[in-house]
Design goal:
- The complex is a heterotrimer.
- By secondary structure, chain A is α/β, with parallel strands linked by helices.
- Chain A is built from 17 helices and 15 strands.
- Chain A folds into 2 domains: 2-135 and 296-365, 3-Layer(aba) Sandwich (D-Maltodextrin-Binding Protein, domain 2), CATH 3.40.190; 138-294 and 372-408, Periplasmic binding protein-like II (D-Maltodextrin-Binding Protein, domain 2, 3-Layer(aba) Sandwich).
- Chain A has helices at residues 2-19, 37-50, 65-77, 93-98, 115-120, 143-148, 157-171, 187-199, 214-229, 242-250, 262-267, 309-319, 322-332, 345-350, 354-362, 373-388, 394-408, and strands at 25-32, 54-61, 85-89, 122-123, 126-127, 130-133, 138-142, 177-180, 205-206, 209-210, 254-259, 278-281, 293-294, 298-302, 364-365.
- In chain A, helix 8 packs across helix 9 (214-229) and helix 16 runs antiparallel to helix 17.
- Chain A is globular and about 70 Å long.
- Chain B is mostly helical.
- Chain B has 2 domains: 2-41, no CATH class; 67-283, MetI-like (MetI-like fold), CATH 1.10.3720.10.
- Chain B contains 14 helices and no strands.
- Chain C is mainly α.
- Chain C is 76% helix and 1% strand.
- Chain C contains 14 helices and 2 strands; from the N terminus they run αααββααααααααααα.
- Classes of the chains: A alpha/beta, B mainly alpha, C mainly alpha.
Amino acid sequence: MKKTLLTGLLFSASMLALSAPAFAEELKVYISSQHQPQVWRQVLDKFEAANPGTKVTIETGGNTSEAQAQYLNTIMSAKDSSLDVLILDVIRPAQFAAAGWTSPFEGKDMSVYLPAYAEANTVDGKVVALPAFADSMFLYYRKDLLEKYGIEPPKTWDELKAAVKKINGGENNADLQGLSFQGKAIEGAVCTFLLPYWSQGKSLVQNGKLTFDKDAAVKSLKLWKSFVDEGISKKNIAEVATDDTRKEFQAGNVVFAVNWSYAWAQSQGKDSAVVGKVGVTRLPAMAGGDQATCLGGWEWGVSAYSKHQEEAKKLVEYLSSPESSKFMAINGSLLPTYPSLYQDAEVVKAAPWFADAKQVVETAKPRPVTPRYNEVSETIRTTVNAVLAGVMTPEDGATQIESRLKRILR
Amino acid sequence: MSHVTAEGPASFFSGKPLRFIAATILLVNGMFPALWILFTSLKTEAELTVKPITWFPHAPTVANYMQAFSDQPLHIFLFNSFMVALLSTCTTLLVSVLAAYALARLNLKYRGLILSAIIAVSTFPLVTLLVPLFEIMRALNLLNTWIALILPYTVLSLPVCTLMLVSFFEGIPRDLENAAMIDGCTRLGALFKVVVPLCAPGVFTAGILAFVNAWDEFLLALSFNSNPALRTLPVGIQLYQGEFAFPWPVISAALVVGIVPVAILIVIFQERVVSGLTAGGIKG
Amino acid sequence: MTTSTLTTTQRIEKEPPAWTRMLDLSDRALAVLLLAPAAILLSLIIVYPVARLAYTSFFSLSLTSGLPAEFVGLENYQLMIEDPVFWETTWNTVLITLITVPGALVVGMGLALLANLPFRTQWPVRLSLLIPWALPLSFAGLIFAWFFHSEYGVVNDVLNRFGIEGVIWFNSPDLAFAAICLTIIWKTSSFMALIILAGLQTIPRSLYEAADVDGAGRLRQFFEITLPLLKPAIVVALIFRTITALQTFDIPYMMTGGGPGTSTATLAMYIHQNTVSFLDLGYGSALAVVMFLLSMCVTVVYLRIIRTKE
């Protein structure tokens, strides 16, 4: 009902936009419908109120990161000027900057943001986009089960395995899966590969150059395969996508799950079997390594083809301001991009779990910052998928990743 | 002896048990996937992940349909799909009737070549033309209009329809046309007053082909019409899927809503489609 | 008012408007006029974009490199020859064509023969052939992805009921490929069946009756009467099916996204990926040109067949 009303409003708003008299400046913002356009609308309303004469309309697009990228790629490669401000997945600013599709923000001080976002939005020393909201991968766990067996949240993957074995031995429930993660050839599988890889202190790309460590890659792929082989994860893990993990965990069929922040709210929702039984923590480390997690989140960019550069930049500055970040944290449950907001009384009151989330987000690493990220991603995710499906050995997988990445980042 | 063996299988082939088996096979093959989606659309998300899976919904609910219409403006998607398919069917028919008539009747010197060319250029997959087509539509200022889809969809069905109509037109005796022209009709008049009505089944079948082709298309619709008010159904269905979420029951409900209009169309016109094909359109 | 309309109609009947009369003068002028709309549309939507693709294929143009387009001659084609994914996707495309085209023909023939039985009510039979045909490809892909899901899919459920252990379809290249081919065959066999059914209904009963008198069995009748008479219809259907099979995109895109690995990706998917996702327009264009040539080969064969018939 609420949604009908909102869709109705949005729709009539866009209809009005067509008939309304021309404003001095009309900006069009591209937001995907998964990113709560109705809540962002409220932020835009505030901007409009503060900037009379500027009118902002929302265009919603494909609902997955890939669908959006395909749509934006088509529009931008045709140099279309209809969009002024774009929301971009954290992995895209580098590509958009290299293609010359976004206008840089000169002299912007990025130190106010979480460091990872300063890094993800800076390409060749230029600030190419500003953070919209933060996200990262978390280890979700069943607090009740861990307490029952007197287990601390695991710090290493080995501890996680031991914990699962202990719980499985006690519960004797064939439907209870130890660990759910993403093995399908989707973007999430890139993070799947990177988590243990990073944990060994290795990086994949530095300054646009490949710094591939084959041993670490083999170990990473072997680790995930071992979860399948040891029965800790499902045999069909190669067809598990992000939301499958969320559903399984929410139904109470999983002890540990690797997932993004969106799964939290739903795990505490009315359809959940695990309300009040969920904990979140940093992802475990490889033995002897550091804990590492994958950075998510979205950014605001100004289209280089926009005919309203100044106004568009002003809008992006506003959308990325502490004020907007706080508003979205409270009203949209989006993780703030400013470290200080995690202690903000109002934010903590609206989303108490953000207190746990801060240390995770703070230590999250961005995926490789390269203009050819799509190709890097494609290589990694299809290989991870093939290894988990048992089509390819971890060694062959690592060799394939290495040879293809060498070609891409030559 | 031979009489008996001829009789045996013959009675089986026209007998009731075989007809029953045949009907079962045909119906299961044709209807099962659609029915399965119908069942899925009546289940809750929780029931969907029950193991072993349930076939019939335990507690049928129409909530998914309500949500399908409230999450996205499904009625607008339906309307757009319908209008785009209908209009592109009309343009396809008009263009292919004219072309087919020229090819069938006008003793053209390069008839074979033209026919080949029409087929040859149309074998090119539209998927690969996405970027140049987008640029053309933008240059013509047609993005976010029905025309942006009607033009490529017309081309999509043009070769099949033209071929089909050529062979239909060739089946019409020239005398009838000549008679009409003697009565004062022009050639074009004769085409629309005599030839087309006589080939009605063929024109009709070609129309259905064009309609279904346009109703199905996804990729161009996704790229050219980004305005929510102009999206078509296959694109709209994609919007129910979130970055992470894949709400099967709601998507199924939307699919059912998308299948029903075509199913109705088919139930109404099924006899004509089959008879159109039978009437000689596919003799080549 | 009535009089005025009457006179207008009369005038039209007496002497057609000047512009149409002019057309009567020459067949050639009329032909040009009649073919013009088709020609304009085809040039705009196909010929011009294809020409642009062919042109772009000689350039190194990757939007992610930030570099301007540079003429590189045949370099993109050279890259292609060395690209294992190009060969894999091309092979997959050819394999899908080789499996699903005859597959759809055989299944379609079977369905048509069944549907041609003397049913009292015809419409449910026709409907069951028309529904799969009218179902959008993207819908079919989605629905069958769900069918073949290892845990919640109906295929494994049915297998389990027969005491066969379900398999994880999308975990194995062969099974995933099989699932895709089955889906394509299901989707396309019904149109094949419709065309064959249409052909079957034009065969005069008297031919079979004569064969009965001669004592020819059903099987012989099928091979000596039915099949030869159906041949023209089948050939046309096969060629169109082959061309669309070479363009296979929606079904694997929706079902597996090309996985596991790239084992079920088709050439059309690879082109789409290179242009729309990787923004490597030069390479993507070269791939598209190769695909065009592949389709042309089929078309040439097709035109040969049509011509020999005439």
